[in-house]
């Protein structure tokens, strides 16, 4: 066997070998000669490259890769005719190792999976990471947490807006299950940069900038200050803390959330009042109607922090809770039921054994916790703006400099996380939509995020549903520019629970060290194809639709 090709996937070997593919020596926190902590950087392997005669979207499936003698991959063409086939004759070359291209003949794989394949992404550390230090765990703690919890009292580590009293119908044991995600979300809130953000969101109309859109008219736009005075920081925190009176949390069924195509949802809080047909509260009995009064039941928004603001209730997909409960039960009982759920997309996607991977359960659960934290922060941003931003008209939510869309949840998570991460999944009809929803939460194949989260956003213009709006200016340029997607390095997700992160990096650099790392060499660039099919419009030669002639590539 070639010594460069040794790479066991067994769990026992994972604990003793660097199966994530990254060079840990470059990933560690560096300390300079003065003893000062330097910002941590992340690295991984160089991606495989195809020969000049091959086209990625048409030919990547015909190639296999293995580790080279350096920090990358060696690639060769295989003696096969279709995706998923095994090679009967290697023609005297090294054995196939990491299969590239789409995991199966099924169309519409995510572009990152379509390009690199599951096995290459896994080897590069984008799916699994197994720590070599079992004693490295640390509970998340934001840079400014000491201002809120100066005594570092354990029971106060979770931010007040996420504590048990804020959750409806949640048992103590279930609250304990989601605690790691609540701590991550709390750490993102406990930062001066976050205070700057919410200060800008609660600013009055006189402090907001404006721009004029050809369709939307005059719109508010907020600028996030780089620094705030101590007085304004305290004021911003007080508004965040007051949200304990203005919103609640509750888990909602997977089916209802999948129908709404979201993992979380903010709902305005209404109070019912009986009014007469003229809208007045006093109701007179009308003769000839057997003493019954003419009235109707109407709903009114419950005011929040200011006039023309309102209180909210937030629902979050129960799928998060179910996944974390299952993992907790597996750990307690020595079972692997969650692992079966993680393997399900391999079956529903018809992935042959030659292209499958072993998924590390702990890595997948770390992703679920991170995605839950992201959902909480996303919805909290909506609720905060509803409670403190006084709209001057429609659109109600303000824009942030640099964004095309005013979708406040995505704008906030992009600002503090460096992107809007989502789980990689595979939807193949007639798969149940609820199962697709669960896949996105358990993220068996890793996660991804876009360089510009709103680049191809359409939004709902006046007359449509929902509060989201998109600038008219720059639309053609945005849609004619490739949409760049990055895979998320699993080492980064794992580090959200390590001592180096919370005891060295965050105290020194705050949110800067919690931003998603970008690997340009591993990015995939989607092309805006008006003939798009499915969700991702990939696998243009595998849809079985040859009557229309060759299909143009949808990514590069």
Largest sheet composition: 4 strands, antiparallel
Compute the separation of the termini in Å: 34 Å
Number of strands: 15
Low-confidence stretches: 1-18, 20-26, 275-296
The helix-and-strand class reads: alpha+beta
Backbone CA Rg: 26 Å
Count of domains: 1
Please bin the fraction of helical residues: 25-40%
With strands numbered from the N-terminus, the spatial order across the biggest sheet is: 12-13-14-15
Mean pLDDT: 86
Shape: globular
Tally of alpha and pi helices? 19
Structure characterization notes:
Residues 1-38, 276-296 are annotated as: Disordered. By secondary structure, the chain is α+β, with helices and mostly antiparallel strands. It has one domain (3-269, 310-526). 31% of the residues lie in helices and 12% in strands. It is built from 19 helices and 15 strands. The chain has helices spanning 11-14, 24-27, 56-59, 111-116, 118-123, 145-148, 172-177, 179-189, 192-201, 230-246, 254-259, 318-333, 337-348, 361-388, 408-417, 433-442, 475-479, 490-494, 499-509, and strands at residues 63-67, 73-77, 98-99, 209-213, 217-222, 249-252, 264-268, 270-275, 296-301, 312-317, 399-400, 422-423, 447-450, 483-487, 524-526. The strands form 5 sheets. A 4-stranded antiparallel beta sheet has the order 12-13-14-15. The protein has a 3-stranded antiparallel beta sheet with strand order 2-1-3. The longest helix has 28 residues, at 361-388. The chain is globular and about 75 Å long.
């Amino acid at each position: 066997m070639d010594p460069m090709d040794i790479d066991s996937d067994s769990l026992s070997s994972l604990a003793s070998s660097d199966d994530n593919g990254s060079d840990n020596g470059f990933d560690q926190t560096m300390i300079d000669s003065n003893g000062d902590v330097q910002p941590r950087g992340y690295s991984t392997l160089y991606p495989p490259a195809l020969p000049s005669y091959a086209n990625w979207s048409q030919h990547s499936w015909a190639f296999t890769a293995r580790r080279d003698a350096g920090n990358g991959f060696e690639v060769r063409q295989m003696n096969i005719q279709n995706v998923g086939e095994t090679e009967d004759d290697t023609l005297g070359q090294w054995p196939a190792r990491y299969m590239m291209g789409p995991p199966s003949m099924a169309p519409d794989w995510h572009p990152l999976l379509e390009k690199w394949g599951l096995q290459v992404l896994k080897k590069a550390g984008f799916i699994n990471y197994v720590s070599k230090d079992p004693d490295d765990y640390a509970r998340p703690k934001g840079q400014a947490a000491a201002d809120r919890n100066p005594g570092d009292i354990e029971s106060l580590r979770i931010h007040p807006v996420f504590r048990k009293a804020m959750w409806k119908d949640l048992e103590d044991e279930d609250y304990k299950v989601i605690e790691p995600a609540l701590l991550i979300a709390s750490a993102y809130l406990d930062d001066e940069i976050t205070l700057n953000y919410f200060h800008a969101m609660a600013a009055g109309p006189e402090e907001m900038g404006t721009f004029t859109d050809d369709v939307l008219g005059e719109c508010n736009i907020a600028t996030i200050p780089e620094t705030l005075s101590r007085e304004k920081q305290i004021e911003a925190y007080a508004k965040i803390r007051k949200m304990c009176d203005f919103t609640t949390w509750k888990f909602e069924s997977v089916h209802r959330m999948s129908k709404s195509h979201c993992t979380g949802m903010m709902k305005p809080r209404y109070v019912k009042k009986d009014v007469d047909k003229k809208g007045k509260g006093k109701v007179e009995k009308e003769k000839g109607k057997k003493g019954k009064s003419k009235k109707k039941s109407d709903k009114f928004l419950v005011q929040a922090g200011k006039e023309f603001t309102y209180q909210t209730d937030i629902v979050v997909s129960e799928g998060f809770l179910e996944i974390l409960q299952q993992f907790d039960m597996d750990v307690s009982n020595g079972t692997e039921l969650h692992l079966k759920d993680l393997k399900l997309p391999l079956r529903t996607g018809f992935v042959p054994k030659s292209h499958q991977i072993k998924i590390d359960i702990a890595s997948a659960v770390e992703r679920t916790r991170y995605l839950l934290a992201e959902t909480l922060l996303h919805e909290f941003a909506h609720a905060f703006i509803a409670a403190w931003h006084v709209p001057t008209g429609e659109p109600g939510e303000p824009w942030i400099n640099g964004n095309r869309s005013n979708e406040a949840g995505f704008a906030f998570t992009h600002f503090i996380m460096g992107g809007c991460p989502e789980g990689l999944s595979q939807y193949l009809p007639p798969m149940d939509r609820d199962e697709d929803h669960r896949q996105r939460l358990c993220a068996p194949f890793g996660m991804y995020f876009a360089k510009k989260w709103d680049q191809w956003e359409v939004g709902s213009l006046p007359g449509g549903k929902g509060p989201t709006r998109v600038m008219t200016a720059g639309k053609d340029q945005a849609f004619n520019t490739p949409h760049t997607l990055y895979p998320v390095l699993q080492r980064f997700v794992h580090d959200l629970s390590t001592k180096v992160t919370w005891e060295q990096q965050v105290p020194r650099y705050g949110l800067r060290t919690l931003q998603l790392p970008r690997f340009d060499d591993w990015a995939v660039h989607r092309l805006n194809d008006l003939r798009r099919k499915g969700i991702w419009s990939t696998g243009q030669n595998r849809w079985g639709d040859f009557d229309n002639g060759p299909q143009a590539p949808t990514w590069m």
